[in-house]
Q: What sequence folds into this?
C-alpha cells in the first residue's frame, strides 16, 4: 500500500489514515473500490458545482445529509423546497366503530374482511351470526358503504348470497371474506 493510495482515499473521503488503510486492505488496495465501499456502493460524483447528498448509516437508512464540500464553491446548501408535513396533517385513519360483535358465553370467531379500495377489517362475531348481520357489521365500520349493495365472497371463490346463512353453517370460522360493492 503506497502513501499515494492512502492520500487519494483520504482526499476523496475526508477520513483519516487508519480508515484509509483499513478500507484499502479490505479492497485489495484498489482505491476506487475502497472509496465506493466507504460511500455505501456509490461513488461521489466529482462534480463540485453543487451540494452532495450522502446517507448517514447507508442509503437504506433514509437519513440524507446534504453537504457542500468544495471550499471554492460558495453556493449555499438549501433544504428541500417543501417541508415535510407532520403526520397530524395527513389523511385520518379509519377507526372501527366496533370490532367485537360477539356475545359472552357463545362460541365466536374472527373474520377478516378485505374491502375493495378500503383498509381491511377484522371482526369478532358469534358463530350464529348471519351473512346479513355480517354486512351490517361491515357497514357500521365502513359507513361509506351504507348506500351500496354489498357482495361477500368467501375465499377462495364462494359467493355468500344467502343472507340467512350462519357463520357456522357456512364454515366461515377464521375466514377471509372479500367485500365488493
A:
Amino acid at each position: 500500500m503506497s502513501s499515494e493510495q492512502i492520500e487519494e482515499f483520504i482526499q476523496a473521503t475526508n477520513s483519516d489514515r487508519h480508515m484509509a488503510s483499513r478500507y484499502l486492505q479490505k479492497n485489495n488496495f484498489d482505491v476506487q473500490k475502497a472509496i465506493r465501499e466507504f460511500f455505501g456502493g456509490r461513488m461521489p460524483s466529482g462534480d463540485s458545482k453543487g451540494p452532495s447528498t450522502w446517507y448517514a448509516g447507508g442509503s437504506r437508512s433514509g437519513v440524507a445529509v446534504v453537504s457542500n464540500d468544495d471550499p471554492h464553491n460558495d453556493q449555499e446548501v438549501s433544504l428541500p423546497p417543501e417541508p415535510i408535513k407532520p403526520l397530524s396533517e395527513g389523511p385520518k385513519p379509519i377507526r372501527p366503530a366496533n370490532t367485537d360483535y360477539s356475545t359472552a358465553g357463545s362460541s365466536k370467531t374472527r373474520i377478516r374482511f378485505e374491502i375493495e379500495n378500503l383498509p381491511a377489517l377484522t371482526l369478532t362475531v358469534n358463530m350464529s351470526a348471519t351473512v346479513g348481520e355480517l354486512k351490517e357489521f361491515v357497514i357500521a365500520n365502513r359507513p361509506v358503504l351504507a348506500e351500496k349493495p354489498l357482495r361477500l365472497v368467501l375465499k377462495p371463490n364462494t359467493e355468500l348470497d344467502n343472507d340467512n346463512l350462519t357463520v357456522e353453517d357456512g364454515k366461515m370460522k377464521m375466514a377471509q371474506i372479500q367485500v365488493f360493492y
Observations:
- Residues 40 and 60 are 10 Å apart (CA to CA).
- DSSP finds four helices and eight strands in the chain.
- Helices lie at 3-13, 17-26, 31-38, 131-141.
